[in-house]
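**User:** Hello, beginner here. Are you able to go through the protein record under this note? It all follows right here:
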Amino acid sequence: MVAYAIAHRQEEVAKYLYKYGADIFYDIDEDGNNNLHLAAKLTLRFQLDRISDAASQLQSEVRWFKSVEEIVPQFFNEQKNKDGETPYQVFVKEHKNMLKEAEEWMKKTAESSTVIGALIITIMFAAAFTVPGGNDQNTGFPIFLNTTEPAESFTVTPFKVFIISDAISLFTAASSVLIFLGILSARYAYEDFLMSLPMKLIFGLSFLFISIATMTVAFCATLYVMLRGQQKEVIPITVLAGILITCLALVQLPLLLKNMALTPRPNIFDRKTATAQELLASNIPILSFVVDVVIEIKDRLISYLRSRKG
């Protein structure tokens, strides 16, 4: 039963059996394979198909192998089966094609995200020097910089919202590009897919999401500055921007949460199941904080526009 649970990646069964002691994992079969050899073999295809991409599939396989490695005797690592192969040699042979697919998927994701991040950097950098309304010819400062608004309705002017959002979008886009460049220059060893590459992907996608969201906020603030007094046109566009951010979150967050869920703890047999909200809060709390801030800015801007209309 132990050998079947390890070979077929039955985590719950293996964790249940582990409660009775690690010594039950010390068996060796008639082919000279210990349980670490069994963990090194590629699992059945239908189990891999439950995981969407090749990188996450390889991460799951590496995580399982490393977890079993921690509970078996240390000499199992160097023990050879009848074919003269150690567990790690079996793992490399079985997962050779998966490593190529995972590397290709990770590079394509990083390349496409780098292009998007570079475009955002170009746009937001140019926007910082071509501010809405232009600059005062005498002082050189933006014309709308000292625009005052009723303190009781909205304490931050739309122009300041534009400047802050533009800066956040620029810096987060630059951070995401640097992270994705780090992914492209990685060595792509099996161990890299366990923690290093998934964490880079999580933070890279998180910064890219924040950059797109704040870019949308800056766009809405610019529209209000340029179309002051035209609330009928500004309010629908602001609402559409809120829908855009929501749709973007629905598209990006599943991939982020999936990578968070697969990011391993030191030992899989001690792993506790976490909800999506707990994973989001424990892995990258800055993401949930910034999303809340963006939504709050959008709600306040809509409330302010409605009050001005009234």
